[in-house]
Amino acid sequence: MLDATLIWDGPVLFEKLFVEHGLSYQRVPASAIGAPFMPLPKSKVMIIPTGFANPQYTGILGGIKTNKSFFDRFVRGGGVLVVHGALVPEYTYSWLPFTLKYREEYGPVDITVVNDHGCRCIIDCERVECDGYFTEADCDVVLNGNGKPVLVAKEHGSGVIVATTIHEFPTGAFLKWAVAHG
């Protein structure tokens, strides 16, 4: 079983993190998810990078929405789904099994811990760049940036969904946490 699957339609810098931390991974376009003729190798973690809803960066959003039930089964079965900011002015994550709404607002923020969830190791400093914040979140807020939710988590079945607007690479500790919990 692979450690991680990166949902994207072309090479991204994110991939170097897996190599640096000795994690196995694959990159697949969202259109390949749930394809009966070519099932994906199993992985513990699925990551949807920043900008997934912005057509200037990628065309994966349609495949993500189409495969809503695939993501639901993946998390219910014990997987960890990590979703980043949409990079559009406002966005509702309607394909997730809980209410989550995003507003784009790029800039540095001061981080405060709201809940001591294991995913908070996504960063290792108190000031980071964010591409926005969550305006509505029916889940646990883990970190705030300037008083607004920037990292949230939702237990779902045997797995967890982690959503973040932190616009920096996650730490190796976070990637290893996600793999250990997937």
Structural class by sheet pairing and helices: alpha/beta
Give the percentage of residues in beta strands.
35-45%
Mean pLDDT: 94
Number of helices: 4
The largest sheet is: 10 strands, mixed
| CATH hierarchy, class | Alpha Beta
* Count of spatially separate domains: 1
CA-CA gap between termini: 11 Å
Kindly identify the CATH topology.
Rossmann fold
The poorly predicted ranges are: none
**Radius of gyration of CA atoms, rounded to a whole number:** 15 Å
Q: Superfamily at the CATH H level?
A: Class I glutamine amidotransferase (GATase) domain
Shape: globular
The CATH level-2 architecture is identified as 3-Layer(aba) Sandwich
**Annotation, overall tally of beta strands:** 10
Short précis:
The protein is an alpha/beta fold and 182 residues long.
Task: Summarize the structure in words.
The protein is α/β, with parallel strands linked by helices and 182 residues long. It has one domain (2-181): Rossmann fold, CATH 3.40.50. The protein contains four helices and ten strands, in the order βαββααβββββββα. The chain has helices at 15-20, 61-66, 68-76, 172-181, and strands at 2-7, 25-28, 43-48, 80-83, 90-92, 100-113, 127-137, 140-145, 148-156, 159-164. Strands 1, 2, 3, 4, 5, 6, 7, 8, 9 and 10 form a ten-stranded mixed β-sheet that branches. A hairpin with a 7-residue loop joins strand 5 (90-92) and strand 6 (100-113). The longest helix is centred in the last third of the chain and has 10 residues, at 172-181. The model has no long low-confidence stretch (mean pLDDT 94).
